[in-house]
Amino acid sequence: MVINTNISSQHGAQLLAESSTRLAKSLTRLSSGSKIVSPEDDAAGLGVSLRFDAQINRINATTNNISNAVSFTQTQDGFLKKAQKALDRMSELALLAQDITKTTGDTSLYDKEYQELGAYIDDIANRDFNGVSLFGSTGHNVTIDSEANTWSMTPVDLAAGVYTGATQGMDLAATGGAITALTNVKAAITQLATDRAVLGANLTRLNYTNDQLGVQKVNLSAANSRIKDVDVASESTEYARYNILVQSGTAMLAQANQMPQAVLRLLG
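The structure corresponding to this sequence follows.
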């Protein structure tokens, strides 16, 4: 029996310290919801999880870009619907101007409305979306994944010759002017039908890409969860275990600290 060195107390203190550390870590995991509370918990898993987090954030940014591109395309189509109505009316006016019972004054009135509708279409051709031209001969590149790969939307150009041929330089009151105007307007209507189909194809591609990103985000989130999210049921069991070990370790350490007092019986 010795007084200076209490081996049982030291061993008990070591075990109590270990149990206290594990209890604190278990408590941190439960409170944070993550089983990786410091890099040493899972160094490789932490590295993979950080990359997953970054990729998920980039997917969110890409989804925002695609949503804006959808709004851009829908705005284009909205203007084309108005242009379609204008062209329909212009074709009607060009046909009415060919009525042999109409005087020059009558056809001049038809021409006045025709010119206003043509100017309206020309004005639409110069519209923009947040400072970006809605119509032109160059397609806009849209990011379609987290690696910044792009897809170019097929452009629609309302300033193309097939449209300006119907909106500019026509005179329904001139000899043969109404016939020429009708021919040009019919060509513009045919082109407009093609352009609206192009916008429909653009929207389909954007929506499919958006759905694909949604599936990818869900799968990446699931994989990331398996790496870093704590299993609450399992960790609660561990917490209860370490809590009991800390309580019992504290009690046993107190007992071990009392053992040297037994020497007093020998001295008495």
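The chain has a mean pLDDT of 90.
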